[in-house]
From TrEMBL, chain A:
Organism: Naasia lichenicola
Protein name: Carbamoyl phosphate synthase large chain
UniProt-annotated binding residues for Mg(2+) 2: 299, 301
Recorded GO MF terms: ATP binding; carbamoyl-phosphate synthase (ammonia) activity; carbamoyl-phosphate synthase (glutamine-hydrolyzing) activity; metal ion binding
Enzyme class name: ligase
């Protein structure tokens, strides 16, 4: 059947903020879907609360709603936009859950709107574990023995039948949240308790353990005519027991015979048919007992998933794009395969290479967390690599992680084989390294199979890598044959250097002299059977290259690598925009990146895509290959975060032109002494500061400037290693903790700043072309200085800053831009403390807030920056209409207010005792994503941001208050307001006393720490009910708890952990609380929705009016004199 | 592991790839072809259709799951030579008995590893399948000109009849493994085990007969139906099989052919056959059943194809009534199936028995079974079954198909 003619408008539901388990792969899939639908002439209405995404660019939909993804908000959108259909299968579990809500609340029926992609029945069959299990059995498949429990008692009974260990999975949670292994009765009680709470249907599934089995996934697609294809098979190197998102995975599956593979395929096809996904894709997970071959179906997702994005990048088959076409009625054989142009999409891609994905973790951000990997996903990003064999792909993937120690090393260590085997037994970040070390130390493949369950074939590949390493070590010299041999197993120049006791540059010189350079092969879906039209390349040390010469002017854009906390989708957004803008400007754009989740690694985004690690070696080889033809104008390094920026110097040294701000200028901003000079020249001040490379120096600095101090390693992103230090002992402790992480050293000194208590923090994003400064936006943080800008909420335009302050910020930014010599983007962070404007730091690169500014004010900063980098002036960009006449330093009176709120992953991380890690915000960033609320004023916008981030404040209920002494003064007004709004109050004794003196009555509860030791695990009978208990009993709806400085955190920690575990709104700063209280009335009246396109129209009207009135006033008075920069 | 001896792969147009010896050491000649399947190397190398061919695997890692006793498609390895990029050093599978390397060596199959198989594939795709040779060990050091001369003086695939080489010497019977509905005589042109299983599982007593069988001997078996198998060689060089088939068709005996059998049905009906530039070899090929509008993902292994008009039924040039092209390859619009509308006969160019490959097309054996049963009532009923398909793939899960085909599922 061709395209349906009864679908003229589609509401696409996005996946909301980036969280662990649901990252920018859904921006990739959603962006593809929006593109496809618009190409098909369908009106696209989009709802997504995440401003950092490409899909929420106004260009990708006809009506873009950056609004909370709740069924109520979606109903408002449906009522307004009247879509013919809703596509919920491309926005992850969030969109699917929203679709279920819309169904159960009768909204679909009420507005006569159809779910496409997967209907309610299909979603339910795939998601409801009991129904799904029966369906698998009916289809002749096998499942793990299991029971459903709705109560703790049912769970205990089930455990008696299944035995320990067993698996616990709450129903309808995403990314496996709350699931894991219970080894004991105690584990079971805790996990089932949490799971019942987390599951929207209050049920958990308990299953027999299949830990250690081989794990596989298939990605399937099916159309209205029941044509079904398997797009990709994926094999997990880490066996069952580690969430697939946390596993090293490989495509295609490498350890199955055809019979075994076809059996999985048959089962998969039966399941997709039985579930009834008839216009889209699904993902099915299998476990195979390595000893007997028994196959168990673990689960299926009736939607595009993280693995679909991986499979799309791994095969070149764009699953989301095809899924969107199927959803509007096309059949697979009616859709062409973009890559060959001549063959249809109704085929199964075949690979002549190996793809390896490795997860990237952030345990360093959560030192208290148990780093053991389980069936709850904990990784925050991933890198993918393509190689002509497994060893190459694995080694490339490991170095793509850009994490110290992620690549295999052969440097001598003292660890014994036995110690390494023990280490390898527990799945953790970097286990693969322990495996390699253990093999090196003499462990056998059998021994490692015994402790890890990793298939012997993969283990042997690591043996092979060790053998090649030994050959390299033993050889007389690095000759061409040996170099090729090493390169054909993925060794980097840096690894060769380590093995040979040389410098990486020396190895590179030897290699180049020997003529050993990679060729570039093509991802073509068909193993070379048909010519590929799409230049999607990866390197290999094979014979023949497939890079087609071009005589165009080329720009290379370096992406931002795997997502991590501090460097996520925001940077991909900027890279993608640069690709679009430069392509429009006539350049041939060449993208290098290794993150399979992103839009930048979609072969449609740039003219050429190289899926390669972002290391100097790999980037130089791509540049070498591309330099063989046409003209290389230069490389864009300022959009891909610290990853790309970090390569600037090396590239420049190799003679590669860097576009925009020069590496020397980048140094000016990063190097404290040089930067101070710039500030001095401009008459600007920074908090008192100094630098140190070891403890003694740091103590001297701290003593001279006075505590508290803010310590910050240079050249890091996301506040890695950033802390507020209150005394010398803590400073010594800090140095102990960062020891060996390589974040502070002679070339990377530690910056020690006087910490500004109670200051207002301000962020500005701006463009500078050498002459003119163009402000993107001035953002006021809601939390005071000391909370990392990535974790604090902020508002655009500022809501409490005066015109004079904003002007001062603008002027200071101009002076800094000139001083550094910025060409392109600049982000500066300021603080206003006691009326003084301090410069905290300047970053001559794209910041995390670039997309937020673009969505809030409609200013395409990244596009403009990329054009400035190739020589365009801001004046000409304004004249062309790319940039609005009025920059972001003045926001019209009637403009909407946008609030960005961070989303934090505390709930995913448990201590070894099973408690949630502490959730206090600090200078080290820990949020994974962000949402935006936009509305006519701050309270409404803030309320939306809270709703989108965590579900928002309840309209009424019980509030618990316990704050540090320094916050007691500030707490009174917000708490009074809460009481007036009808909330009842509970407080700890000290806080209650302050409140009572101010005329606010609050019930008193006991502190957790006053529990008798013997009562910690039981009831505190006789005494006041303690607060942790009350939270756990669901008797508290909102928790306000601020940490009391440097110590006495224990009590606060228990309260916060309980609040996070129970999913209660938790305020750890008074600023945040005050904003939330101000927004409660907005919540009570319900949300109105406005699309970005409507805001743009309003802006156009408003600026036309402003221009008219300016013209009128200009007629009467002289133009305002030019402002003179400060200093 | 000690590095293996040097080896070189030489194509008749002079292109050379240097690598390492794999399997047996020595020299091997054959037509250079590539296959794109990512699984099923054991089935591939034991598929008689590959006789006379040096097969290159586009999938880089080969041999990972070793070799077992259940998966071979015939009693021996048939490929003339074997080209892989990264042969497995170990075997990892609970069913494995031996390593692939051991089997290749034991059966004297000369292979080469460590070459740029993708460059080779692209070369063959652009220039077409061609004669080639692997020289390994001491032969690798022969003068390149001499090696090339040896290649160019080896026989070409076109015009080659390889049936005798691969066929059984003596007839044998495999009893039906389901309720018996009749018997089928399989002309063994390179039969695969999976096909025999599939037919036996549909209730046929299966008589596998040598390709040289005379018409009298064939009809003396009194088969309910006749089946022509897949196999190597040029269909233009198979006059005996075509003449025999024409007699089968004239008698109105229900007929089903696969692969080479499809080409021979085409020729028996009076159509031509031609050599494809580089053939179809893989397990991911989309084929459209033009009568149901369904797309099947199918296993292919053919270098020749039938030249018949794609649009609409036409009269058989050899006088067997109307014929239509029932199946078409969607990648390149090659004829992938023929259906006779006036006699009970049909065939497909691809492999419904799979092994290696997907089970999407296993329903064709059911259609054949239904046709044979209907032929017990009348010829018209049999033709009806085959020419107006009612056994749709939707009716049957691929698992059922596989189960009936005798797979362990």
């Amino acid at each position: 059947m061709p395209k349906r003619d009864d679908i003229n408008s589609v509401l696409v539901i996005g996946s909301g903020p980036i969280v662990i388990g649901q990252a920018c792969e859904f921006d990739y899939s959603g962006t593809q879907a929006c593109r496809v639908l618009r190409e098909e002439g369908v009106r696209v209405i989009l709802v997504n609360s995440n401003p950092a995404t490409i899909m929420t660019d106004p260009d990708f939909a006809d009506a873009t709603y950056i609004e909370p993804i709740t069924w109520q908000v979606i109903e408002t959108i449906i009522a307004k936009e009247k879509p013919d259909a809703i596509l919920p299968t491309l926005g992850g579990q969030t969109a699917l859950n929203a679709a279920i809500d819309l169904h159960t609340h009768g909204i679909l029926e009420k507005y006569d709107v159809e779910l496409i992609g997967a209907n309610f029945e299909a979603i339910n069959k795939g998601e409801d574990r009991q129904i799904f299990k029966q369906l698998v059995l009916d289809a002749g498949g096998d499942v793990a023995r299991s029971h459903i429990a709705h109560t703790i008692d049912e769970a205990l009974a089930a455990a008696d039948d299944l035995g320990y260990p067993l698996v616990i999975r709450p129903s309808f949670t995403m990314g496996g949240l709350g699931s894991g292994f219970a080894y004991t009765r105690q584990d079971l009680l805790r996990m089932v308790g949490d799971g019942l709470h987390q599951s929207p249907t209050s049920e958990v599934l308990m299953e027999e353990s299949i830990i250690g089995w081989k794990e596989y996934e298939l990605e399937l697609m099916r159309d209205t005519s029941d044509n079904t294809v398997v797009v990709c098979s994926i094999e997990n190197v880490d066996p069952v027991g580690v969430h697939t998102g946390d596993s090293i995975t490989v495509a295609p599956a490498l350890t199955l015979t055809d019979r075994e593979y076809q059996n999985l395929r048959d089962i998969g096809m039966d399941i997709i048919r039985a579930v009834g996904v008839d216009t889209g894709g699904c993902n099915i997970q299998f476990a195979i007992d390595p000893a007997t071959g028994r196959v168990i179906v673990i689960e299926m997702n009736p939607r595009v998933s993280r693995s679909s994005a991986l499979a799309s990048k791994a095969t070149g088959f764009p699953i989301a794009k095809i899924a969107a076409k199927l959803a509007i009625g096309y059949r697979l054989d009616e859709i062409p395969n973009d890559i060959t142009g001549v063959t249809p999409a109704s085929f199964e891609p075949t690979l002549d290479y190996v793809v390896v994905k490795v997860p990237r973790f952030a345990f360093e951000k959560f030192p208290a967390a148990d780093a053991r990997l389980t069936t709850t996903m904990k990784s925050v990003g991933e890198a993918m690599a393509i190689g002509r064999n497994f060893s190459t792909a694995l080694q490339k993937a490991l170095r793509s992680l850009e994490k110290r120690g992620s690549s295999f090393s052969w440097a001598p260590t003292n660890a014994t084989k036995e110690e390494l085997l023990v280490l390898a037994e527990i799945p953790t970040d970097g286990r693969i390294g322990s495996v390699q070390r253990a093999l090196l130390a003499g462990a056998t493949v059998d021994e490692l199979f015994e402790v890890t369950g990793i298939d012997p074939w993969f283990l042997d590949q690591i043996v092979l890598i060790n053998e090649v390493a030994a050959e390299i070590q033993a050889a007389d010299s690095l000759d061409a044959d040996l170099l090729r041999h090493a390169k054909d197993h993925g060794f980097s120049d840096a690894q060769l250097a380590e093995l040979r006791g040389l410098d990486e540059h020396e190895v590179r010189a030897i290699r180049w002299n020997a003529g050993v350079r990679p060729v570039f092969k093509t991802v073509d879906t068909c193993a070379g059977e048909f010519p590929a039209l799409t230049p999607y390349h990866y390197s290999s040390y094979d014979e023949e290259t497939e890079v087609i010469p071009s005589d165009r002017r080329k720009v290379v854009i370096l992406g931002s690598g795997p997502n991590r906390i501090g460097q996520g989708v925001e940077f991909d957004y900027s890279c993608v925009h640069a690709a679009f803008a430069l392509s429009d400007a006539g350049y041939e754009t060449i993208m290098i990146n290794c993150n399979p989740e992103t839009v930048s690694t979609d072969y449609d985004t740039s003219d050429r895509l190289y899926f390669e690690p972002l290391t100097l070696e790999d980037v130089l080889e791509v540049i070498h290959a591309e330099s063989a033809s046409g003209e290389l104008v230069g490389v864009v390094v300022q959009l891909g975060g610290q990853t790309a920026l970090g390569l600037a110097k090396g590239l420049e040294a190799a003679g590669v032109p860097i576009l925009g701000t020069t590496p020397a200028a980048i140094d000016l901003a990063e190097e404290r002494g040089l930067f101070s000079g710039i500030l001095d020249d401009a008459g600007l001040v920074a908090p008192k500061n100094g630098t140190a490379i070891e403890l003694t120096g740091a103590l001297d600095v701290a003593t001279s400037i006075g505590y508290p101090v803010l310590v910050r390693p240079s050249y890091v992103l996301g506040g890695r290693g950033m802390e507020i230090i209150y005394d010398s002992a803590s400073l010594a402790d800090y140095f102990d903790r960062i020891e060996g992480q390589g974040i502070v050293g002679p070339s990377h000194p530690l910056l020690v700043d006087r910490f500004l208590d109670d200051a207002i923090e301000i962020d500005i994003d701006a463009l500078f072309d050498g002459e003119r400064l163009y402000v993107g936006g001035v953002m006021e943080h809601i939390e005071e200085a000391g909370v990392h800008s990535g974790d604090s909420s902020c508002t655009l335009p500022p809501v409490t800053l005066g015109r004079g302050q904003i002007d001062a910020v603008r002027d200071a930014t101009l002076a800094i831009a000139k001083g550094i010599g910025v060409r392109g983007l600049l982000n500066v962070q300021f603080a206003i403390g006691a009326g003084v404007l301090y410069v905290l730091e300047a970053n001559p690169r794209a910041s995390r807030t670039v997309p937020f500014v673009a969505k809030a004010l409609g200013i395409p900063l990244a596009k403009a920056a990329s054009l400035i980098m190739v020589g365009r002036s801001i004046d000409s960009l304004v004249a062309d209409g790319l940039l609005p006449e009025q920059d972001g330093s003045i926001v019209p009176f009637d403009s909407p207010v946008a609030v960005k709120e961070a989303v934090l992953p505390f709930k995913r991380f448990r201590t070894t005792e099973g408690r949630v890690v502490d959730s206090v915000l600090g200078p080290e960033m820990r949020s994974t994503g962000e949402v935006m609320g936009i509305d006519r004023d701050f309270p409404r916008a803030f309320a939306k941001s809270q709703e989108a981030a965590y579900g928002g404040l309840p309209p009424t209920g019980t509030v618990f208050v316990s704050v540090a002494d320094r916050d007691k003064r500030a707490i009174i007004l917000p708490v009074l307001r809460l009481q007036q709004l009808g909330f009842s109050l509970l407080a700890t004794e000290g806080t209650a006393e302050v409140l009572r003196r101010n005329g606010i009555e609050a019930g008193v509860v006991g502190k957790y720490s006053t529990r008798g030791d013997g009562l910690r695990d039981g009831r505190s009978d006789g005494d006041l009910p303690d607060i942790v208990e009350l939270i756990e009993q669901d008797k508290v709806d909102v928790v306000i708890n601020t940490p009391s400085g440097r110590s006495a955190r224990a009590d606060g920690y228990e309260i916060r952990a309980a609040a996070v575990a129970a999913d209660k709104p938790l305020f750890t700063t008074i600023a945040q609380l005050a904003a939330a209280v101000a927004s409660i009335e907005a919540i009570q009246t319900g949300f109105e929705v406005t699309s970005l396109q409507e805001y743009a129209d309003q802006r156009a009207v408003s600026s036309a009016r402003a221009a008219a009135s300016a013209a009128a006033s200009a007629a009467h008075s002289a133009a305002r004199p030019e402002r003179i920069p400060a200093g | 592991m000690a590095p293996s001896a040097p080896a070189v792969f030489v194509l008749e147009d002079g292109r050379r790839f240097r690598g390492r010896a794999y399997g047996a050491v020595g020299r091997a000649f054959g037509e250079a072809v590539f296959t794109t399947g990512m699984t099923g190397y054991q089935e591939t190398i034991t598929d008689p259709s590959y006789a006379g061919q040096i097969v290159a695997q586009t999938a880089p890692h080969i041999g990972n799951t070793g070799v077992n006793d259940e998966d071979p498609e015939s009693a021996r390895i048939w490929v003339a030579g074997y080209v892989v990029r990264d042969p497995s050093r170990v075997v990892s599978n609970h069913r494995a008995k031996r390593s692939l390397d051991d089997d290749l060596t034991a059966q004297g199959i000369v292979g080469i590893s460590g070459i740029d198989t993708r460059a080779l594939t692209r070369h063959l795709r652009d220039r077409g399948a061609m004669r080639s040779a692997i020289f390994s060990g001491p032969d690798a050091d022969l003068d390149p000109a001499e090696q090339l001369t040896l290649v160019t003086s080896s026989p070409e695939m076109s015009g080659l009849n390889l049936s005798a080489e691969v066929s059984t010497d003596t007839a044998y019977t495999v009893d039906a493994t389901a309720e018996r509905i009749g018997s089928v005589a399989i002309l063994d042109l390179g039969i695969k085990a999976a096909t025999i299983h599939a037919l036996a599982a549909r209730g046929f007593d299966v008589h596998v007969v040598p390709e040289s069988i005379s018409a009298d001997d064939l009809f003396a078996l009194d088969p309910t139906a006749v089946f022509y198998s897949n196999g190597p060689g040029d269909p233009e060089a198979s006059d005996h099989h075509i003449a025999l088939l024409q007699q089968v068709l004239k008698r109105g005996i229900p007929f089903f052919g696969i692969c080479f059998g499809n080409q021979l049905l085409g020729r028996a009906l009076g159509f031509g056959t031609y050599k494809l530039p580089f053939g179809h070899r893989g397990i991911n090929q989309p084929v459209l059943d033009r009568r149901t509008g369904r797309v099947e993902i199918t296993a292919h292994n053919h270098g020749f194809a039938v030249d018949a008009p794609l649009d609409g039924p036409v009269e058989s040039p050899a006088g067997f009534g109307r014929v239509e092209v029932s199946h078409v390859g969607l990648n390149d619009q090659v004829v992938e199936g023929l259906a006779c509308l006036d006699i009970p006969a049909f065939s497909v160019q691809y492999h419904p028995e799979a092994a290696a490959g997907p089970h999407d097309s296993a329903y064709l054996f059911d259609r054949f079974r239904a046709m044979v049963i209907a032929s017990g009532e009348s010829a018209e009923a049999a033709i009806e079954v085959e020419s107006s398909p009612d056994v749709l793939p939707t009716d049957r899960s691929p698992r059922d198909g596989a189960r009936l085909a005798g797979e362990d599922v």
